[in-house]
Structure formats: structure tokens, C-alpha cells
Amino acid sequence: MTIRTAIIGLGIMGRRMLEHLEKHPHYTVTAIWDPDKGACDAALTLAPDARLVPSADAAIQAADLVYLACPPIPRKTYALAAAASGKAIFLEKPLGVDVAESRDMVERLKAFDVPVAVNFTQAAGAALADIGSAVKAGDLGDLVGADIILTYAQWPRGWQQTADWLRFRSEGGMTREVISHFLFFSERILGPLTLVWSQPDYPLDQDLCETHIAARLTSAQGQIVTVMGSIGGAQPDRQELTIKGAKASRRVSDFYRDAQSTGGDFTALHKDDADPRAVSLKAQLDDLALLCAGKPNRLATLDEALRVQVLVEAMLAGHRTKSDATTA
């Protein structure tokens, strides 16, 4: 039997997941909902046979698994409603924007004891698995730390323009949307991180999200993670994480491209897939099916997502001490 799935939130990520759920043999999309008619119309163009329901609650009741692709602030309400109805839940990241609210949500979701995971898209991907294996085998030597570098000509990026909330300080920004992925990846390799300091820069319009951010974090072993993000200038997008070892280093670009250096130029370890995003999403959905069946899986846990959120919100606030960011 397939997993009856509802989607709440039909923006960019909701529609993307709808398209891939429709192709996956383990899922049947039984309900979709968004308060915006334009988003609903766009989703129905992708999946004409999808059942558009009149409310979030109707979507929850029509499924065994609820995928929440709405903006961060309303996710808590929908997640707790789904959990109270005994549904499995797949949350988009970030977990939220208010740490206290997210802590409360995590505690309450755990009490319901339903399957829950958060969609950090690299969790089930080949790059994280291969680098994790290489680290365990000693192929990288002693780990030195990591560098996270993002540069964008504009934010939101061209393909994100319809998600207007991404440009606002209250819920959006590159740190929550992209740097969070690489913090999650770094913690899977280096263990929990502590924020030492951060310096965000914001436009004069205080409603808008950060344009630049720099930060330094450390692992329990003293490995340093350096973060640099900037927006502006005529340039191609750059988004990369480098896991640095004494013998070799691995660089993940654009989430999927895995390359290695032993001191010289980085060289690709694999040929690019024709559609790397599709490969990544299928891997996530494969592991989501394992989660729903109560089996071991590689998806991000609530605790991992909360740790990342604590780091991100401290980074965005401008952080100069080691308090709060050490535990979730």
C-alpha cells in the first residue's frame, strides 16, 4: 500500500515535492491545500488529478503523512494539529524562527510519538554518505574544520521570486534557507557546534533580511567552522561547503557536487546526474518511507533541526558569547 500524503503549502517547495511524490511508487497524494489561490492553481497545473481541499484540517484528515511546506511561522500550528490526529509529519526547514516556540513544538511533538522528520535535503544524499564514510575510514586524516561560503547576485534568487516572504527579516534570508543546510551537514560530520561569534549586516529597511553574514563556530574537538555569505554584484551563484582534513578535503557545491583535494585543485569525484535535485529528492522520499514504517533512516531529526535553528537565530542576532548556542 502507498502512503497517503497531504501537502500544506503549495509554494516553490510544495509544488516541487508534489511533482516528485506523484512519481514515487511509495506515495499517493490525497490532498493539497494553500490559502493562496494562485499557488493552488499552479499546483493543479503540475498535478491535475490532485485533490484540492478547503482547509489545512481537511488536508490533515485525508492523509497518513502530512508534508508542511508553508512558511516557518504557521508550521507549529499545523504540525501539532497533524500530530494530535496521529499523522506522520515531514517538516520543511527551518524548524521555525522563534527558538522558544520551536522548543515547545519539539517537546509536544515528541509526546505524541508520531514519526517526524525535517527536510534538510542532503540528509539522505550521496555526498553526506560518502564523506561520512571517508571520514570514518580515515581517508581525510584528522579533521581540521569546515568552510561554508555563499555568494548570490540577488536574494531571493531568480527562481524564488514568487516566494516573497524569503526577502523579509521575520522569516526569510539566506542564513535560514541555505546556510542552515550546510550547518546540518557540518554537524553530521563534526558533531554539535557552538557559535563563537557572528556579524550579520542588514539593509536600511529594517523589514528586509540580511545581505551579508560572517560567523565562526567550533566543534567539541576544537575544529573551526567558518561561514561567509554575501549578496550583490554581477556574479554566478556560489554555495559550497568544504570539510577540511589533514590528508584530504571534500567540497560539496550546489548541494550535490562532491569534489576532493589533496592539496591541489579540487577534482570531481562523480559525474553530474542529469537532474541532481530529482535524485536527491527521491533519496529523501525513500528514507521518508522508512521513517513512516518505523525503520532506521537518515533524515534530520527534530533535535538536529532545533540545534541548527538555535545556531542560525543566534547568528542572525549578532553573537559574541558561547551561551545558548551550545544546547538545544
In short:
It contains nine helices and 13 strands.
Features:
Dihydrodipicolinate Reductase, domain 2; five-stranded parallel sheet; eight-stranded mixed sheet; 328 residues; 36% helix; alpha/beta
Write the layout of secondary structure elements.
Layout: E1 3-8, H1 12-23, E2 27-33, H2 37-46, H3 56-61, E3 65-68, H4 72-84, E4 88-91, H5 99-112, E5 116-118, H6 126-137, E6 143-152, H7 174-190, E7 193-201, E8 212-219, E9 224-231, E10 238-245, E11 249-253, E12 257-261, E13 267-268, H8 276-292, H9 302-317
Parallel strand pairs: 1-2, 1-3, 3-4, 4-5, 6-9
Antiparallel strand pairs: 6-10, 7-8, 8-9, 10-11, 11-12, 12-13
Helix pairs in contact: 1-2, 4-5, 5-9, 7-9
CATH class of the largest domain: Alpha Beta
Structural class: alpha/beta
CATH fold name of the largest domain: Dihydrodipicolinate Reductase, domain 2
Overall number of domains: 2
Number of helices: 9
Tell the overall outline.
Answer: globular
Radius of gyration: 19 Å
Tell me how many strands there are: 13
Question: Which range does the strand content fall in?
Answer: 15-25%
* Unreliable parts: 322-328
Which superfamily, in CATH terms, is the homologous superfamily of the largest domain? Answer: Dihydrodipicolinate Reductase, domain 2
| Helix proportion | 25-40%
Please write the string of helix (H) and strand (E) elements: EHEHHEHEHEHEHEEEEEEEHH
End-to-end Cα distance, whole Å, is 37 Å
Overall average pLDDT: 94
The name of the CATH architecture of the largest domain is 2-Layer Sandwich
- Largest sheet strand order: 7-8-9-6-10-11-12-13
What about the largest sheet? 8 strands, mixed
